[in-house]
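Query structure, 235 tokens:
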């Protein structure tokens, strides 16, 4: 395969390099493909499926699927937007997300995707699960009520911090984010400056003592929809 080639996203021909994922090539071309579990610098995980696109008519996760010469990718279609809305709505009802009281509001990728996709209220019944909060650590707390199981903290702690502080336990509806100490965050090596803390897209892992340092209304997604930074690169 040639090192450099092109492929099509929603009718636009874009350049790509061998080994690039569809999502990465789209980012560089200024085309936003919604995503949640993917984060620059972290190994792609392919868990949330929010980045699903059609590749030559077949659904694939853009964050894991390598770009190939000449493929036809559909991203911004009514059907895919509807599928993404359903995924986001399911994440909202499956946890306990009270955005108006959350320190992450305005900086939260889940909330911002809800706004971008035009979700006013989820169509599914809320499950109101019982989840534990761990506030034992002096600098950081974990509120599992808001965890969307994206695994970004797991990968950041393992691959960037070299600590393996976070991992998943349980399966299906019982799956939870856990820490590598017996039970308490306080007994781990976690520091507030760790990449794992910054990697959380929602308000599940938060630093203590810095709440509302940036007022509501002046936060990243209060002014520009999620994905605008990528779309501003379009020529
Ligand atoms: S704690 Fe945050 S980063 Fe970790 S899995 Fe949950 S939502 Fe993702
Ligand atoms: S961003 Fe691709 S599966 Fe989550």
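Result returned for the query:
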């Amino acid at each position: 395969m040639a090192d450099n080639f092109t492929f099509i996203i929603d009718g636009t021909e874009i350049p790509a390099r061998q080994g690039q994922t569809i999502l990465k090539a789209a980012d560089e071309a200024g085309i936003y493909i919604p995503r949640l579990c993917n984060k620059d610098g972290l190994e792609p995980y392919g868990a949330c499926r929010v980045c699903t696109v059609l590749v030559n008519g077949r659904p694939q996760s853009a964050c894991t699927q390598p770009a190939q010469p000449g493929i036809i990718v559909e991203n911004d279609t009514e059907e895919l937007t509807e599928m993404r809305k359903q995924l986001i709505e399911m994440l909202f009802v499956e946890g306990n997300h009270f955005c108006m009281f959350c320190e992450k509001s305005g900086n939260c990728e889940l909330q911002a995707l809800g706004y971008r996709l035009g979700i006013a209220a989820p169509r599914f019944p809320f499950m109101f699960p019982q989840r534990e909060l761990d506030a034992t650590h002096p600098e950081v707390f974990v509120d599992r009520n808001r965890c969307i199981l994206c695994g970004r903290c797991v990968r950041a702690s393992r691959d960037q911090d070299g600590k393996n502080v976070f991992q998943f336990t349980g399966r299906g509806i019982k799956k939870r984010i856990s820490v590598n100490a017996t039970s308490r965050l306080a007994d781990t090596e976690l520091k507030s400056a760790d990449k794992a803390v910054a990697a959380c897209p929602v308000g599940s892992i938060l630093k203590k003592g810095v709440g509302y340092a940036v007022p509501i209304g002046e936060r990243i997604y209060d002014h520009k929809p999620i994905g605008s930074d990528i779309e501003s690169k379009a020529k």
